[in-house]
Structures are given as C-alpha cells and as structure tokens.
Amino acid sequence: MGDTLRLLRVMWSAGKGIAVVITVIRLVERLIPAATAMVVGLLVGRVTALNGTGGFSTVLLPLAAFGAVLFVSHAAETVVEPLAYLTQQRIDGAHRAAVTRLVASSPTIDLLEQPEAQHLIQRAKADPDEYTQRTPGQAALAGLDQAADAIGVVATCLVVAQFAWWLVPLLLIPSLICVRLRYRQRLKFVRLWRAQLDELLRADRWQETLVSAGVGKDMRVFGFGDWAVRRLRRQHVVRCQPIFALWQRNICGQLWLFLLAAPPLLIAITAVAAGTVNGQGSFATETAVLTAGAALFTMIGPGESALTRLAGLEALKAYDELAEVFGKDAQRPPPAAPAHTGSSSHVRFERVGFTYPGTTHAVLDGLDLEIRPGELLAIVGLNGAGKSTLIKLLSGLYKPTSGRILVGDGQDLAELEARAWRERISVVFQDFVKYELSAADNVTLGRPGVVPDPTVLEAAARDAGLRPVLDRLPDGWETPLARTRTGGVDLSGGQWQQVVLTRALYALYTGAELLVLDEPTAHLDVRTEFEVFQRLAEHRDDAGVVLISHRLSTVRQADRIVLLGGGRITESGSHDELIASGGDYAKMFAIQAERFQQGYRHTIEEGELL
Ligand SMILES: Nc1ncnc2c1ncn2[C@@H]1O[C@H](COP(=O)(O)OP(=O)(O)OP(=O)(O)O)[C@@H](O)[C@H]1O
Fold first, then answer.
1. What GO cellular-component annotations does this UniProt entry give (predicted)?
2. pLDDT band at 229 (very low <50, low <70, confident <90, very high)
C-alpha cells in the first residue's frame, strides 16, 4: 500500500493536469473490455431476436455503440502514448537530477570510492540498459496500469455476474493466485540483478574503456583487441547465464499458471453454454459473459506491469538509501558553518594522520607543515610518499584521520563550509580531467557561475603560455577540445596541461588566494615550464603557491622546499639550505642535475635553468 501511494505521489509530481488526464484515459481503456462484452451481447441479442424477419434498423444502435467503443479504444491508445512518454520523461528527468545532485552534494570523495556507494548509484540512477531495470517514471505508469486493471477487472466481473455470481470467484481466484505467483517470479529477476551489480558495473566500465580513443591506441599497438572482446563476451555470458536459467524455470512455471487459470475458464464457458441451452439465459448474455471471461483471462496476463513496478520502485528505494548515505555526508560540516577569516594562503597541518578508507596503511603520519601567506612552497618526495594525498586533504576532499588542518586565522578546515573554502583555492590535480568542451569552457570552469571576463581570461592564457596554442586553434577560444566533436581538435599532453594551468590561473586571478599545483608541468618542455614559472612568480601578487614536482630544476625557484617521506616532513628549507645540509634532497638534486646536464646540454643554454 505504501509503495502504491508513493508511486501515486511520483505520478502527481509530473504535473496535476497530465496525471489526471492519463488516469482517466487508463480507466477508460480498462472499461473497454466490459463495454465491448455488453455491446457485443446486445448486438447478438438483437440479431437473434430478428430471426430472419428483417427490420435491420433495430441493430443500428448496438452497431453504433460498438463503433463508438472501437473509436474510444483507438483514440485512448493514440493519445495515451505521447502523454505517457511525457509523464515518464518528467519523472525520470527529475529523479536523475536528484540522484546527481545528491551525489554531487557530498563535500568529500571518500564515499565515491566505495563499491557499496557505486552499487547504490547504479541502482538509483535508473538507466534501463538491463532487462530488469526500470525507471521510476515507468513504475509510476505501471502502478497506474495496475490500479486501472483492478477497476477493469471489477467491471468485467459485474458483466460475468449477470449470468451467475459464482462465476466471479471461479474465474477470479485462480487468476489472482496467478498474479501473485508471477509477482514472485519477477521478484527473483530483480534480486538476481541486484546480486550481479558488481559484474554489471565492471562490464560497463570495461566496455566504455574499450571504445575510448585513448585505449584504442593501446589496444592497437599491443594488439589486445581480440583478447579484450573475448573478455567482454565472457563477462556478458557469465552475467546472462543465471538470467537465462531463471527464464527456463519461468517458462516451465508458465505451464502451471496456464493449468491453474484455464480450467476454471473452460468450466465457466461450459456452464454458460449449458445454461443457455437449458434456457437459463439468453444467447446474448452467453456472448457477453464469454467475451468478458476471455478479457478477464488476458487482463490478468503477462505480469509485465508487476516487473516494471517492482524494478522502478527498486530505483526509488535505492535513492532513499543513497540519500541516507550521502545526505549524512553532505551535512558534515553543517551548512551553517562559518566562512573562514584571514588569508587562505596561511595553512597549518598539525600532527595530521591519514589512512584511506578501507585500507590500513597510514599515508600521512603525524605530519606538521605550515604554508605561509604569499609563500611559494614546493613539496617533493618519492613516488607514493603522499604528496597528492596531502593536496586532497588541503582541498577538503578527505578529512584527516587524526590531527587537524588550520586555515586563515586558525579555523579548523573540517568545520568550515567546504564550498566557501574551495572558492579561495585553485587546484591543478596530477590526474586532471580533459573536458570535452570548448577551450573557453575548459578554462572558465575554474570559476563557474560567473560571467567570464575576457581580459582575465587572456591574462591567464598568457601566463600559462597558452596564447600560441589558441592562435593555432581553428575557432580560437570556441574550438571544442575533442576530436569526437564537430570542428574539434585534440591537444598534446603538454598543451592540455597549459589549458589546465590557465584554468587554475583564471581562478587565481578572479579571487583565489592559494594556488595548488600537483605536477603541473610534467608534460611541458623545459623552456615552456621555465617561462610559465617566471610569469607565475611575477603575477601571483600576494597569493600563496604550493607546488608538487619531481623536476627539481623547477622546485629550486621556490621560497621553501619540504621533503615528504614516511608520512612526515623530513627536510625543510630553501634550495641552498637543503643542498648545504647534504640530506636526501641534495642527493636527489645531484642525480637529476647530472642526468639533466648529460641529456639536455645541447639544447638548453648552459646555466639558464640550473
Ligand atoms: N584513493 C586511494 N585509495 C587508497 N589508497 C590510495 C588512494 N590514492 C592513493 N593511495 C595510496 O596512497 C599512497 C600515496 O599516494 P599519493 O598519490 O599521495 O603519492 P604521491 O606522493 O603523490 O606519488 P607520486 O609522486 O607517484 O604522484 C600510495 O601508496 C597510494 O597507493
């Protein structure tokens, strides 16, 4: 009952007018079998009464009524289809927007990395690419169908009862048992689908990966196309086999359902025929009852509505669970949390420890670090030392497992409103995203919702060294940065990095106070990288910059360099101080300087960069 009410509410949410119209049409449709039975009965009665005596005019009325029933049936069918489509799209559009909003509302990303959360999202997103998956819109319409079916069954039973009341339970009870059994069969499909979510997700991702241009390169070069397709097929077969097996059992079950429902219908037909022969009813009544009985048999038919209702409700229930999980998360920190005060480029990590959810290894372990206002701070360390993790904590994407991060005048980052904090910082991640949007959109995403200022856009492009790249694009700023889009182009790795740097600088020049760059120049040639940093140093004003880089030739320009190792800062100082101390930084620098001089001596003027 609760589910039915919920589906009605969902239906109502599509718009009162459309909900009422579609309900009326569905009801009319369901009354048509009963109306047909009565009209056919009336027609047969009149024809029989004529008994070859002429007077054809007496059958005109039932004939006209029959035509009217046919017309109404046809009109209802024609009108209901677009209305149902509209209703479904409205409901599903709103549902998908709600799911996206909910998932996006989480201030951190730790939940998104959990398989359980991904399963919930898959269940809730109502993307009916699977046999058993249905959308809330489809479920609402199916719920309406079922309610209308029930009314249609009552009307048809009234026609049948004209002959004898006991025919109603005789036909109805086996049919209702069939409905129940079918419902249980469909429930098994939904449960099976739910149990297979993990494989489904893996197969989906694998398929998406295989058709992407990036993987297309690897696939061709290494020649693993056949292997990849075989793997995809195997995943598909493994997933489908239990569904086929369930179908096989289902087909056998259908025979039992037929044996349950058909004999009562035959008994009813025989009883009505015998009764008519014995003068218990007219031939017309017999025709009406038989027409209605057959309609009843088909009305309680295939159980598709039951599956649709069940599967669509599944998406709504998954949304509830998702709201529970993400809703809680979205409320940490509380929405009314204060905005921070003081300079955003003043940050202190106090004994910060961090272990990724679901793992046991502490990536950061009692880390103390101060990022001073206006300072250019470089963080270096070996692969896996935790540099990117530190940046994610600084961006508020994860909360420290222990310790705290104080920002501005000493406010705990965990208690601040995440959005307000992020407006004050500008971050380039190592694994940045290449958005299939225009060059302008790719950059202005750094400050969304604000009318782009062309002067600032140009300044950011100039400082990131993007201007020469833009000059070569066919449509300048408006060129889509994706080969798959009409008129689009793809950029080289270094050019993409310049786009992303431009985005970060654009955010910096429009209000951010702390620029965080995680390997921002790994793909840039040495000269471009040098020029970019020169300009950044000139134009950053009072903004702080945190730079992560393995290129120590870049890092040496920083005001201060810290070395991260074993989850803590192990060395800190200017380049000269660290070289003088002869620690790990000095050793790393010596190795790189030696390799650099060997590898680039002929292309870079001596002493220009080192
Ligand atoms: N989302 C994650 N879930 C679990 N563990 C993670 C996750 N991201 C990173 N790690 C682990 O955390 C450790 C630190 O990774 P991180 O990316 O911070 O290192 P890094 O210093 O930036 O390395 P690199 O120089 O190679 O970029 C690694 O052992 C890594 O496996």
1. plasma membrane
2. confident
- Report phi then psi at 574, rounded to 5: -75, 170
Atom of ligand 1 nearest to the CA of 358: 4
What is the per-residue pLDDT across 571-604, written as a single tens digit (0 to 9) for each?
999 999 999 999 899 988 888 777 666 654 444 4
Separation between Cα atoms, residue 138 and residue 136, nearest integer Å: 5
Ligand 1 centre from 388 Cα, in Å? 7
Ligand 1 in reach of 522 Cβ (< 6 A): no
Share the mean pLDDT of the chain. Answer: 83
Q: Residue 542: its pLDDT value, please?
A: 74
**Domain 2-330 grouped into CATH 1.20.1560.10:** yes
Per residue in 332-370, pLDDT (tens digit) is: 544 445 555 667 778 999 999 999 988 899 999 999 999
Least Cα distance to 172 among 161, 183, 163, 182 occurs for: 161
Q: DSSP string covering 150-163, please?
A: HHHHHHHHHHHHTT
Q: Is 551 in the pocket of ligand 1 (CB under 6 A)?
A: no
Is any atom of ligand 1 closer than 6 Å to the C-beta of 384? Answer: yes
Residue whose CA is at the smallest distance from ligand 1 atom 6: 356
Q: Where are the domains of the chain?
A: 2-330
Q: Is the CB of 312 under 6 A from ligand 1?
A: no
User: Which residue, 23, 132, 4, is CA-closest to 87?
Assistant: 23
- Between strands 347-355 and 362-371, the pairing is antiparallel
Alpha carbon separation from 486 to 6, 211, 374, 479, 483 (Å, rounded): 44, 18, 43, 9, 7
Question: Which ipTM did the prediction report?
Answer: 0.97
